[in-house]
Amino acid sequence: MIIVFLFWLLSNQLNRSFNGWNLKILLVFLLVSSIWTSTFSKLKALVLGTFKSLISTWASCF
Predict the structure, then answer these.
(1) 5, 30 contact by CB (below 8 A)
(2) Distance from C-alpha of 61 to C-alpha of 57, rounded to nearest angstrom
(3) 52 within some domain
(4) Domain that holds residue 59
(5) Which positions, given as ranges, span the membrane (predicted)?
(6) SS3 content of the chain, % helix, strand, coil (to 5)
(7) Tally of structural domains, the chain
(8) For the whole model, what pTM was predicted?
(9) pLDDT digits (tens, 9 = 90+) for 6-54
(10) Is residue 48, in this structure, part of any structural domain at all?
(11) What's the rounded Cα separation, in Å, for the pair 62 and 48?
């Protein structure tokens, strides 16, 4: 994703019609996607850990 961003930035610099709004929108998109990815992985780990502890607690009852 970073390589795509650098390539996009380079192509915009070569192109004389550089628009600052495109850069801002792309930076916001990269920030949101990275935050979403890290939050989703933490949430998945939390759900899996809770599920495993519930199963082990349930199995220890029998």
Answers:
(1) yes
(2) 7
(3) yes
(4) 21-62
(5) 25-43
(6) 85, 0, 15
(7) 1
(8) 0.42
(9) 777 767 665 655 566 677 777 788 888 888 888 888 888 899 999 998 8
(10) yes
(11) 22
